[in-house]
Design goal:
The protein is α/β, with parallel strands linked by helices and 322 residues long. It has one domain: 3-Layer(aba) Sandwich (Rossmann fold), CATH 3.40.50. 43% of the residues lie in helices and 14% in strands. Helix 4 packs across helix 5 and helix 8 crosses helix 9. The longest helix is centred in the first third of the chain and has 24 residues.
Amino acid sequence: MKLICRSALLLLGALVFFGVAGVVATWAPDRPVAALQARWAQPPSQFIDVQGLQVHLRDEGPRDKGAPGSPEGTLPIVLLHGTSASLHTWEGWASDLRRQRRVVRFDLPGFGLTGPNAQNDYSIEVYVKFVTATLDALGIQRFVLAGNSLGGQIAWATAHALPVRVAKLILVDASGYGVDPNNAPLGFRIAGTPVLRDVMAYTLPRGVVEHSVRYVYGHPDKVTPALVDVYADMMLRAGNRRALSRRIEQGYTGDVAQIQALKLPTLILWGGRDRLLPPENARRFAKDIAGSTLVVFDDLGHVPHEEDPARTVAEVRRFLGS
């Protein structure tokens, strides 16, 4: 009996030792935004004050568009990223679209270099008000709105709230019908689990970040070390890990009646290999938004705009020119 107890204590001690060793090995405290700007906020990045936040944004392309009465073919396009992403996810689209029109993208509160808000509130309603305030600050009254994942949900909710201002809508693997937590990337599951999320606030194993990024790609081999660097550094921005936990708590289920009430030209782009939000959700959006256009890329994942910018933005250009 004493031998069994002693063995159990040794095992417990070993688990504690290796657990502590693991935490020490992956220790990653928050980094101030100033420490990240040199690498991730190079020109044309800028910071503007919106609702008390220093919002990291990039505003490129012709600036004389978007005024009342502008032709829809010249309206600015606003790009909203998803959970744990940043404005960098849109680089492929922005480099193409900014040649003909104004392209605006920014880090949403709780993510990227913008960081958390003081209210610790990342509800869709709060995001809609933030997007509106940001565009007001930039003097943009009428625009095309595109969003991926969480950004897609914010986009359609904003289109519902501002029907006169949003001319066209582009949904890229958008949330809104709920998310099965069992299908979430490893990093999201950790952020949504008590105790583990508290540990994550001080550690960040690179393997967890890499696994999560590879999970949302249809072709995981396309995930490069440089891409993992972007996601890892954005997670380390002071306050973002705790904000992620709060965002997950607030959920991804929207008001379906708002989706069904949308009456504007809408393009739905989806990755056929999306494991987080499967193509069934795309077909549901297409059914609920009358007159919408659905394009599925069978070989791409949850972030098709990032995984294959050229092929996906070609559909965007076709839609904007129609």
